[in-house]
Amino acid sequence: MSGIESGASGKRRSPERTVRHGLVEQEIFDHATRLFAERGFSGTTLQHIADAVGLTRPGIYHYVKSKDDLLSRLLAEYTEDSATQINAIAARTDLDSPSRLREIVTLLARRQGEHAARFRLIIRSESDLPNTLATRYEQSRHAVLRSLATVIDRGITEGAFRTVDARVAALGILGTVNWVAWWFDPDHNDNLDAISHQLADTAVAGLLDVSGRQPVDGPHAAIAAIRAQVDRLERTLRS
């Protein structure tokens, strides 16, 4: 709208009001994350959140429709956005498989460090999630796992990664990265960029094929590479 947005009432907001709305909304998200973590989702009311932000109960409805709406937006911002970004990296054709994996792990580790409180909240609130939110959350989790496993599987086919169970490898990487939300501490001079890159390098190094195979391009080359591996295995068994 050329710098003007519409509010909940349908009236247009000036750029200044739009900025203020965004800042208040982010403050609501931050306080809601803290209160949900402290009290649990069922033990937190919109009045608790309004009081923490300094809004009246009617005032908070200018920003969120309900407690479920607020949690839905917190989930969407964290899990669904992550799934979309990771899927986009997995689909990139300008990167090889190790580079795709490195980009994905770096992104995941950085998000865990930047939004640690929100991730911990999601984990602790899983049993309290309304059915529709629980379904969306599970779909996003599976989408992330699927994209990561696809990248690993493609790397195996290309000959860049050694032969492993791609799903198990993906689960292992996600388990490692998810722990960042518990141990990362910026107050103790933890460098999130350095941590993210180190975890990404470790993930890639753990999968790289160092047997001397050359990366392959295309299904026919992949089949030829597999046949060569079988031939080597048969020679080994006969020796």
UniProtKB/TrEMBL annotation:
Pfam families (UniProt xref): TetR_C_24, TetR_N
PANTHER family assigned: HTH-TYPE TRANSCRIPTIONAL REGULATOR BETI, HTH-TYPE TRANSCRIPTIONAL REGULATOR RUTR
Key word Lipid biosynthesis present: no
UniProt-recorded Gene Ontology molecular function terms: DNA-binding transcription factor activity; transcription cis-regulatory region binding
Organism for this UniProt entry: Amycolatopsis pithecellobii
Domain HTH tetR-type: from-to ranges: 22-82
Listed name of the protein: TetR family transcriptional regulator
The keyword Phosphoprotein is assigned to this record: no
Location of the DNA-binding region in this protein: 45-64
Keyword annotations from UniProtKB, A to Z: DNA-binding, Transcription, Transcription regulation
Spans through the membrane: none
